[in-house]
Amino acid sequence: MRTIDFSPLYRSVVGFDRLAQLLETATVDQASGYPPYNIERTDENAYRIEIAVAGFRPDELNIEVKENLLTVQGRKTANDAERRFLHRGLAERDFERRFQLADYVVVTEAGLADGLLSISLRRELPEALKPRRIEIATASAPLIEGEKAA
What we know:
The protein is mainly beta and 150 residues long. The chain has two domains: 1-30, no CATH class; 32-126, Immunoglobulin-like (Sandwich), CATH 2.60.40.790. 11% of the residues lie in helices and 33% in strands. The protein contains two helices and seven strands. It has helices at 7-12, 17-27, and strands spanning 37-43, 46-52, 61-66, 69-74, 95-100, 105-113, 116-123. A four-stranded antiparallel sheet has the order 1-2-7-6, with no helix packed on it. A three-stranded antiparallel sheet has the order 3-4-5, with no helix packed on it. The chain is elongated and about 100 Å long.
């Protein structure tokens, strides 16, 4: 795979560090496609990430969010000493997947069922950023001195 050099971008823009970092991260080849995953939009402001983690127990999985970066790790405990495989087709190897989250996207829940780790996400805009309706005041007829308003 061909790598792209973003260093000229860093030299010519100011204040776009995060954008440049996102571009650089997006081009980094995650060496393998393991484990496979889906990203699904479930609602206007809701998403779900499903990761195939067959063979992993909940205590072997770790989900962490730090500075808009969702990291999912799987660390398989060594339990193969007593097992003798004739064929080993299930990968069951350690992994780390990272997902860059947009601002105000939070993890709401995670669950493990049928070999799929499901992570639910929701965009929660602060009240100050939500659109709000502004009422338009109308000018009332000028009052004549001594007259009461109706």
